[in-house]
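User: Predict the complex with TLP.
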Amino acid sequence: MTAPVDLRSDTVTRPTPAMLRAMAAAPLGDDVYGEDPTVRRLEELAAERVGKEAALFVPTGTMGNQVAVLTHTRRGDEAVVDVASHIYDAEVGGLALLGGVQARPLESRAGRLLPAQIEAAVRADDVHYPHTGLLCLENPHNAGGGTVALPEEVAALCAVAHQRGIPVHLDGARIFNGAVALGVPAAALAAPADSVMFCLSKGLCCPVGSLVAGPAAWIAQARRMRKLLGGGMRQAGVLAAAGIVALDTMVGRLAEDHAHARRLAEGLAELPGLRIDLPTVQTNMVFVDTDLPADHVCHELAARGVLAGAVGRNRIRFVTHKDVSAAGIESALREASRTVAGW
Ligand code: TLP
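Assistant: Here is the predicted structure with TLP placed in the model:
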């Protein structure tokens, strides 16, 4: 039996042979003592790539986001978020549970908040109100379809927060997909935000790891918060080594994943019973709406060797990545066409 075409997420990518070699050869130390040279190298490289003073290696994107929230806010603060953002919707209520932070969720169109919405959401100085302590943005926006906001759009949102003295955290889990799609450096997308999180373990194909970046003094405090959450790892250079290879060699190839997503979207859009908002296909994701229950459609596709994710009652997500070739995309289209023909 041939292996399934796994389009559930780019998190399923396997490390490359170059990564495995680098992991085996990495110089190591105890990173809680600050003595792992490979982690230090990765943190320096990551900070440089997103244009921040310093960076911190964390096990997951979720921990990176939550470390950022804990570092920026105080208990009882309110964080302005978009209702479909990962930090609000898919991190187990961490804002409230870990930080004691109340979320102020705003509706957005394909993940695009508007400056006026933020302006209206910031609390006035009134004894009844919580203090607005943080603005969280996500770019590219996962649930929005992998859509990318332009650097000037991000800057306009950040400016509203900064005028009121409110810091901004950017969930840039797939910031390099965004940068490649726009043809700008990742630093241009991260520049207006105070802190940024990005993942190595998605399209960049590392087995584990994310980074949080920001001002050096802020990162020193974030390091304490990582320890609090149990993210102080020891010889973590064995993982960081793969991250260095990723940042040096895996960014440019994301364009291939984007081309595959476009091909997949255009092919699926032609099938009866499937609806796709093609302009939202900007990076490596394709969201498909269908009248049938998404779970049922995913089950049928899986039986034909195509794995996709049900992300809503009638919504399915396909994510392209290094471990799905052009031939895999054609095979997914063929099997999807056979599936809808049976309806
Ligand atoms: N996203 C995963 C799932 O959790 C949905 C995926 O398959 O897309 N921010 C964003 C925008 C993300 O998409 C994710 C993971 C995270 C943060 C969290 O990263 P991890 O999974 O490393 O905790």
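Residues 9, 11, 60-62, 65, 86, 90, 138, 142, 171, 173, 199, 201, 210 surround TLP (CB under 6 Å).
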